[in-house]
Amino acid sequence: MAKKAFLLEIGTEEIPARFMNPALAQLREAAARELGAARLSYDEIKVFGTPRRLALLVEGLAGRQQELVEKKKGPAAKAAFQADGTPTKAAYGFARSQGVDVSELLTEDVNGTAYVFAVRKEEGKRIGELLPILCRRLIGSLSFPKPMFWHDKDVRFARPIRWLAALWGEETVAFSFAGLNSGNKTRGHRFLAPEAVEIEEASLYPEILKRSFVIADPQEREKQIVLQVEKAAEKLGGRTVFDAGLLEEVVNLVEYPKAVTGEFSREYLELPQEVLITVMRIHQRYFPVFNADGEIMPYFITVCNGTDDAYLQNVQAGNERVLRARLADARFFFNEDSKQPLADYVDKLDKIVFLEPVGTMKRKTERLVAFVELLSRELQLPAGVRETAARAAYLAKADLMTGMVSEFPELQGTMGMHYALRSGESEEVAVAVHEHYAPRFAGDEPARSLPGALVAIADKMDTLAACFGLGLLPSGSQDPYALRRGAAGVVAALSLHKLTVPLGRLCEIALEGLKAELDGDFAETARRMEDFLLQRVQHSLSEQQIRYDVIDAVLKGKIRDLPGIRGSAFLLQSKLDSPELDRLLTPFTRAANLTRGQKPAAVDPGLFTTAAERELYAAARVAEAAVKEGVVGRQYEKVFTALAPLFMPIERFFDEVMVMTDDAAIRNNRLALLVFVRELFLYLGDLSRIVQEKNQNKGRK
């Protein structure tokens, strides 16, 4: 069977850079799915993309479908054939439904009973019949965040499609889509090779484009960009630090990269380094240059799209002119903003609405200050920490009213830090203002300073409370207020700084500040907020390789603060293979099941009638003191050590005592004793949820 390369190229107007990687992933997945469904074997799938094209190259695509062989089970043989072997109506009907003659039916034994089977074979079609349909299906399968209409309302794509190329080996695959007919020609670089270029053979596609000043493979373009930018930085006596997002964007903005260096006036180095980096990276897509000490140098590197060497000087001058204007704006904003202290901007926050029903950013600021002061008192933090956090909370949002942040929103918090320092605020306050937005993105660290963490928690909890109170909850992949990221940030800050406030209490504090603005059942809202936070805790523990049943156990326990939850989780994880835990699981599970739904009640030793009851009660009272001491000190090994000896008294109790006796007083007292024991164990977690090793796969995480 002949095997050749198959090429599908979709030529377009410039596709936005952020669309490219998801589109290529979709194209690869769709190709694997469609080729599999079409029963077409192949060696390898490759995808290529530039701003003006998406392309699929399938190496070693078979010239014919694999033969289809289907075996379908029919009625029992005794229903399909009479005693003399004559087919019945059931046999004829089954054969007709499967498209075979009744004489072709087979009989096979299934679990001791004979059944009729039909084997249907379908010869594979030639590749030429399949590829036109496949091409149209592949193009139609691609989706984009903001597709465009241009041919008719049934055709949508990232940008209008301008040409189509499709080949199997040297043969052109003819099909039509959106009013265009496919051919065997592609287009090179818009300016360096604008003429149409014939593709002699599908496998030659990348090389043909390279001769026309187009590097089709994004990974190859990235390697060239990194190499060129690093060499350019070395020539300038410095180095660059590649931002992953910027590099990905630049890769998908050009077809034939060429690095160009530029320079700006040293006077702009007086601006905060973050301002220079933001202007260059985010607004101009330039790579900054740093010296050996990590300080920014008055140079930048940009990547243009294959400009002819004769025009590189013009490219450099043009980029320098644009950057000079942007930096001049930044210096103007910086100087104007600095004419008044940061605190003077706080009252102006009344001009920014946070959420319509819950007031302005000024009102949010008041809530943040109240939150950190109350939380600091509950945690009994030193006065210096409380004062720093309260001052940082007061200033946290002030830079939103500055000209710099209005022009460059990415600098919120960062400019607050710089303006705070210029206003005479302490370094601790300034750092906390900067850190309160952390973590800013997935993988970012939480606030490192304790005051910064307190303000970050207050800010994120206030947003959570406002959105939950207003019913603005995330659904599916939609999370417009970034509540999941905010909740994860709260969990990360609590964990890093070992803050022992219960999660439910955090929710109550946040909602307390909103009672004047919100209506509703605050207790229910607090419960839903706590559940939302616990989902993030569950995810965090799972990422740290804590086993699923251990996570379930600790989240159903009595400890509700994050350091306690983490401490008990890691302790139980470390004990999973220990005989001590194994001995406790069965007796505790019996006690937990028997007392499910029972609330704690006083135990009356005077109602004990057996030695086993007295022994269990005495052992539990001894354990109680050590358990509570261990919980207060966050010494979970001590808690476990105190509970471990209870397995013998619990087992003896169940061996010798009838809990559900007819005497109501004795029965209730025995249940109260078991509840007392259960509640002690719940300081570690609900051990009944831990799956014993014999019932689960070894090593499962």
Write down the overall geometry. flat
What do the pLDDT scores average to?
A: 94
Distance between the termini: 46 Å
Radius of gyration: 35 Å
* Gross CATH architecture of the largest domain: Orthogonal Bundle
Low-confidence region ranges? 694-701
**In this structure, how is the largest beta sheet organized?**
5 strands, antiparallel
Tell me the strand percentage band: 5-15%
Category from helices, strands and their pairing: alpha+beta
**Total number of domains:** 5
Strand order of the largest sheet: 2-3-1-9-10
What does this entry show, briefly?
The chain has 701 residues and is of the alpha+beta class.
Question: What does this entry look like structurally?
Answer:
The chain is of the alpha+beta class and 701 residues long. It folds into 5 domains: 3-65 and 126-211; 68-122; 218-337, no CATH class; 351-543, Hypothetical protein af1432 (Orthogonal Bundle), CATH 1.10.3210; 572-695, Isoleucyl-tRNA Synthetase, Domain 1 (Orthogonal Bundle). The protein is 48% helix and 14% strand. It contains 25 helices and 19 strands. The strands form 7 sheets. It has a 5-stranded antiparallel sheet, covered by helices on one side. Strands 4-6-5 form a 3-stranded antiparallel sheet. Strand 18 and strand 19 form a beta hairpin. The model is unreliable at 694-701 (pLDDT under 50).
